[in-house]
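agent> fetching stored inputs for the guanosine-5',3'-tetraphosphate docking request
agent> found them:
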Amino acid sequence: MKLLEQRIQSDAVVLDGDILKVDMFLNHQIDVTLIKELGKELYTSFSAYPITKILTVESSGIPIACAAAELFNVPVVFAKKGQHSNIGSNVFSTQVFSFTKGKSYQINISKDYLLSSDNILIIDDFLANGEAVLGLKRIIDEARANLLGVGIAIEKGFQGGGEKIRKLGVPLLSLAVIESMSDGNIVFRLNNCKE
Ligand code: G4P
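agent> prediction call returned; pasting tokens
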């Protein structure tokens, strides 16, 4: 998506350790106009799918998920992080290992909000090693719901998460795929389609 690629090129900062800092429009300050455009693009791409619910993980995936959900006219459910999240004991839980942070954390979704009849679109801000998406998939499988697709704002194509998800046969659309960002030079993947 050209708009997002242009915004990354103009504003994002590459930090040591292959981290792309996008605090100025996505991870801290939120550019609502841009986020709405991301939601619209994801909606357009998955509008033929009978989505009943959008799933994400707190926190930065939530605005994008909401922007898309408004167009699908479906609810957003976000997985809560941590063992003490205040959603009771009737939950689906799994451990997710974060390579970025070097530690595992638990994600939880109340059984009240994920049903076997649900057709799910996962939306998140970043796809790096894919652990967050795979954790959500484990919960979706446990709930016997259907995962119909994954929509991501920024995929770091060199970290393998996208490959893992595509290998599972799950349709994945990443609005911007970064091929490399060595020496602060951001290179995007040219052909980026969902199947
Ligand atoms: P993975 O799920 O794809 O395996 O990624 P990983 O565990 O490594 O990512 C952990 C967190 O770091 C996630 O956010 C993810 O969105 C974020 N992240 C990964 N790579 C980058 C990057 O290059 N730049 C930025 N800005 N974030 C990155 P989180 O901890 O869940 O935080 P948040 O959603 O509350 O912001």
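agent> quick read of the result: The pocket of guanosine-5',3'-tetraphosphate is lined by residues 19-22, 27, 57, 59-61, 98-101, 125-132, 156, 161 (CB under 6 Å).
agent> awaiting further instructions
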